[in-house]
Amino acid sequence: MNDNNPNNEWKVICRVEDIPVLGARRVARPVGVDVAVFRNAQDQVFALLDRCPHKGGPLSQGIVFGTSVACPLHNWAIGLDDGCAKSPDEGCTPRFA
Fold it and tell me: Name one GO molecular function term (predicted).
């Protein structure tokens, strides 16, 4: 979150237990692309724009492994902690706090 932006605010979307382990929930936004909220095996929660930086695939439909998610379209590994594609692939999707 950016404290200088008045549009940034915390929003309760669900309990951690409502997000499947090694899975995701999609959160609709009134404008723009939805947000994907992920939970890994260590109960860490991450939020990314629900769009792969490669072909725009829905990351919420991908497979979570460790701190990454595999895009369902082309199997790109995207870091849940930073939203960036793992090498040798390139590109990032926005991450949310």
Answer: metal ion binding
